[in-house]
Amino acid sequence: MASTPRAAWALAPAFALLLAFWLLPLAHLMLLGAQRRDSLGSGYWQVLSSAQYLGSLAQTCALAVFVTLTALVIGGTSGVFLARQQFFGRSALVALLTFPLAFPGVVVGFLVILLAGRQGLFAALGLQLAGERWIFAYSLAGLFVGYLYFSIPRVILTVMAACESLDRSLEEAAHSLGAGHWRVVCDVIIPGLAPALASCGAICFATSMGAFGTAFTLGTRLNVTPVAIYNVFTNYANFAVAAALSVVLGALTWAVLLLTRRLVKNAGTVL
Amino acid sequence: MKRSSLFVLQLLFTLLVCAFMLVPVLLSLMAGLTRNFFVGLASGLTFDWLIQVWQAYSPTVWLSLQLALACAVCVCVVGVPAAYALVRMNNRFSRAFEELMVLPVAMPGLASALALLLTYGQFGAFRSSWLFILVGHVLFTLPFLVRPVMAVMQRQHLPVLEEAAASLGAGPIKRFFSVVVPNCRAGILAGVLMVVTLSLGEFNLTWMLHTPMTKTLPVGLADSYASARLEIASAYTLIFLLMIVPLLIALQAISARLSRGERR
Amino acid sequence: MTAITIRLKGCRKAFADGTVAVHNLDLTVEGGETLAILGPSGCGKTTTLRLIAGLERPDVGQVFFGDQDVTRLPIERRDVGMVFQNYALFPNLDVAGNIVYGLKIRGVPALERNKRCDELLELVGLHNHGRRSIHELSGGQRQRVALARALAPRPKVLLLDEPLAALDAQLRERLRSELDLLLRGLGITAVFVTHDQGEAMALGDRILVMEQGRVAQLASPREIYQQPANAFVAGFVGNLNAFQVIAQSPRGLKVCGGELPWQAADVPATVYCRPEHLRVMDGEGHLHGHLLAQFFQGAQSRLLVDVGGPQPLLVDSSDNQLHAVGAPIALAITPNMLFTLNA
């Protein structure tokens, strides 16, 4: 189209903003990570050679994967149900289930404390039932619950949207060929939802990797990477390591997003 | 109508999930309004905690509102033209740009904040003003406006409308304000609501970018969670929820309307 | 295998919004016959098919396959083959994967499955297409794969929902005759839904015309066309000329433009005939008027003739002789092709 170059001008402010305040700082961060402050070598080297940092990265990844899978199972089940069934109070239920998506991490952390903290619901419940307080808010389990809290609504929303575009006659066709309920779920619904589940899972993973607020509220002793970055930066003022850790965390997250995009694109031709 | 046992099972499961989402929020509401949470509701209901929170933390509420509104304005000014350009161009470059735009959301907020801080932190006046946080928020919320606006533009077959306006003699600027903007009002509104909601709740970036003089609501929340008693923290959370839930309800109403329009 | 009879007894189906899709439907589809269900959209024809398939359960009434009451059986246990309107091929499986899906569910061993798959690919003329992805197929090929998939488990009944509607006109014509040959060769009981009268006439042994959830007529294609039960059926299958009877005359009935031959004793208010049953005559005819327009349609031409009535008469003439507009035209009617209709 002849007006394409002119339309490109409208992109200029956004481009300038991203360039100045994101691309440039990010490049700076990457360079900072390569700086050597003392005999310990560059920030990257310190991160990649330290069992502590690598451990925290592995733990963060494992936690994020576990959260993502659990959220996909729970959210997928509820999402398909909510998309497919009509009953009284359905839209209210959907609204309630999707509100937590916009809650910031700190608030989610606090809610986990109310649920499983020292004076939480589970502590009271445990005291009643077993005579001991059940407290798991300040551990990885608490973090897991918190991440689930904002991952489930995302999965439910995505699955509901994807269900709308699923072709109902595919399910009927499978039934007509003799497939029972579970067969249809495995052979038609899950393959149909797979691209949506994959991309949503990738976003859940990314959010869980970088969720700092929840971990910050639940306690800075948790060994997950965002907290580690924060501690290195504020307590030791070790900019090189903080930058390197950030870059590695960002690269990991980005790699997973990119990989999913590739896979989903291939799956997209199947769909 | 008769329901199968599978339906009942699924409903129960979904209700359980809903309880998981809702119970902590209700606990927090209750804690913020009871005189003594350890004693329970028997100690009576009170607004004292809310008043105390307001006395101690009201500046954070005002700053957050100011930030959210400023952020919405900035994102509109930058984002609507960007969405327009992306829809019009629709080539390799524009798709690459879309990817780039989403990256600050996909990347851990802490990394972006650290990058900003280490690059622009030495400019003292900028660093200590609320504009520093604003930059972070604009970066983070930009795609949430651009995406819905683009969707509406694509659905309205904007290029065709614009060609029609051009055939009637409207120049590019005139077209943008008389045809483009009015026809994607719903998308802009949905985007703005989302931006305001996200900006009000943004913590990951803000915690790194704030100074003691520029505390936003979520920063104050984190503060109170770490140091104040449970009732105060709960009352503070209650204020936050009161601000954010109406926005979310409006957002759901608008997106329902938008998707109805899509189906028509 | 003997073909099975399908019976619907007093079936009624209403939807959640209160609209009744099917009222008290009684229907018997004889074993081995192909029944076409014809009607405008919203007449209940798809619901009837879905009742037979087991995709819907009647609110009242029963469905029998042979002597077995299948009313409460879900579709997966009714042993029907179904071809869907948009084919509903599984996009995550290739052509062969789609065809053997039903066999897999029935636990047929792999070797036998593959044999049956090759057989069916041969039958629908798609040998060597087994490993193709669904996306590489044209519309006509998809239709054939859908048919092969439905037939693979050797179902008792074949159901087709607008099987040719998604194809373009030329392809539709060709696949229609292929499908006709196939259904006759298999001798299977088949029911298909269509809104295309030509398709119903060509494929159906009998046609069920539906109107607003009720049976308008159930008869052979010839009967439906030549002795339609009511004005709705007559208007839905083909075009119609209506003559208001002015008076009885010695030779028949006096109408606008002339007299029509009529032997019966009663005198109807209106009589009807089809456009192709009017012939253009050189000299004398039953009716006289003048030409309003002539449309060339290839094998025949359609004439609009004004005989002084409220509507011009439609005449389908195969001689393709060119007449001048305004020229006088004499028309004769083929004997016994006049009919009356119930309102």
Characterization of this structure:
- Chain A: This is ABC transporter permease.
- Chain A: Pfam families: BPD_transp_1.
- Chain A: It is a multi-pass membrane protein.
- Chain A: Keywords: Cell membrane, Membrane, Transmembrane, Transmembrane helix, Transport.
- The complex is a heterotrimer of chains A (271), B (264) and C (343).
- Helix content of chain A is 79%, strand content 0%.
- Chain A is mostly helical and 271 residues long.
- The longest helix of chain A has 34 residues.
- Chain A starts with a helix and ends with a helix.
- Chain B is mainly alpha-helical and 264 residues long.
- Helix content of chain B is 83%, strand content 0%.
- In chain B, 47% of the residues are buried.
- Chain C contains eight helices and 19 strands.
- Chain C has a six-stranded mixed beta sheet, sandwiched between helices. In chain C, strands 15-19-16-17-18 form a five-stranded antiparallel beta sheet, with no helix packed on it. Chain C has a four-stranded antiparallel beta sheet with strand order 2-1-4-5, with helices on one face.
- The relative contact order of chain C is 0.12.
- Chains in contact: A-B, A-C.
- The interface between A and B is large, with 81 and 82 residues.
Main sheet specs of chain C = 6 strands, mixed
Beta-strand level of the residues of chain A, as a percent range? under 5%
Secondary structure: helix percent of chain C: 10-25%
Name of the CATH homologous superfamily of chain A? MetI-like
InterPro entries (chain C): AAA+_ATPase (IPR003593), ABC_SmlMolc_Importer (IPR050093), ABC_transporter-like_ATP-bd (IPR003439), ABC_transporter-like_CS (IPR017871), Mo/tungstate-bd_C_term_dom (IPR008995), P-loop_NTPase (IPR027417), Transp-assoc_OB_typ2 (IPR013611)
Domain ABC transporter (chain C): 6-237
GO molecular function (chain C): ATP binding; ATP hydrolysis activity; transmembrane transporter activity
Pfam family, one (chain C): TOBE_2
Write the layout of secondary structure elements.
The complex is a heterotrimer of chains A (271), B (264) and C (343).
Chain A: H1 4-9, H2 12-34, H3 43-49, H4 51-84, H5 90-98, H6 105-116, H7 121-129, H8 140-164, H9 168-176, H10 181-210, H11 213-218, H12 225-235, H13 239-270
Helix pairs in contact in A: 2-13, 3-13, 4-8, 4-10, 6-8, 8-10, 9-10, 10-13, 12-13
Chain B: H1 5-33, H2 48-89, H3 92-106, H4 109-120, H5 124-128, H6 130-155, H7 158-167, H8 172-183, H9 185-201, H10 204-209, H11 217-227, H12 230-263
Helix pairs in contact in B: 1-12, 2-3, 2-6, 2-9, 2-11, 2-12, 3-6, 6-9, 7-8, 9-12, 11-12
Chain C: E1 6-14, E2 20-29, E3 34-38, H1 45-53, E4 60-65, E5 68-69, E6 80-83, H2 95-105, H3 110-123, H4 139-151, E7 157-161, H5 169-186, E8 189-194, H6 197-203, E9 206-211, E10 214-219, H7 221-226, H8 231-236, E11 241-249, E12 252-255, E13 258-261, E14 270-273, E15 278-281, E16 287-296, E17 301-306, E18 313-317, E19 328-333
